[in-house]
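Backbone-to-sequence.
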């Protein structure tokens, strides 16, 4: 017996992308405004990201990775450049495996820049999060326009 099942989830994916974009934009702006509070800002971002990923049931691996990275940042704030770069490296490799090559390479490039310049980690993380949030916001707008036009 042949059965075909098609599941389409538009609303939750859009909500997740909107939350993710707004969270990344707000965190990036905060990291650039108050670089001295970086470990609070980045740790809070990673906890919030793991809650979003958990709520929308995106990936158990990415949820655990972001929560573990947040715990490491709160426990060892002097290792922010390396723990966040490790998080970005795994995140970028995950994007590459999901066939999102351009975004994956950009994420890996930021991870490499953070490891090479740990003194400017706040500015690099802020710039990355602003870019990442902006890309998600643009994709969300493009998807909503495509749905309205029937594409």
């Amino acid at each position: 017996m042949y059965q075909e099942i098609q599941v389409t989830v538009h609303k939750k994916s859009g909500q997740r992308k909107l939350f993710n974009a707004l969270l990344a934009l707000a965190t990036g702006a905060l990291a650039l405004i108050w670089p001295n509070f970086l470990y609070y800002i980045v740790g809070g971002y990673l906890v919030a990201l793991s809650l979003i990923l958990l709520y929308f049931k995106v990936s158990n691996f990415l949820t655990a990775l972001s929560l573990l990275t947040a715990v490491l940042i709160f426990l060892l704030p002097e290792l922010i450049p390396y723990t966040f770069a490790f998080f970005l490296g795994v995140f970028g490799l995950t994007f590459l495996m999901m066939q999102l090559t351009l975004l994956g390479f950009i994420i890996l490039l930021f991870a490499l820049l953070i490891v090479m310049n740990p003194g400017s980690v706040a500015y690099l993380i802020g710039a990355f999060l602003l870019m990442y949030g902006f890309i998600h916001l643009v994709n969300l707008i493009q998807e909503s326009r495509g749905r309205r036009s029937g594409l």
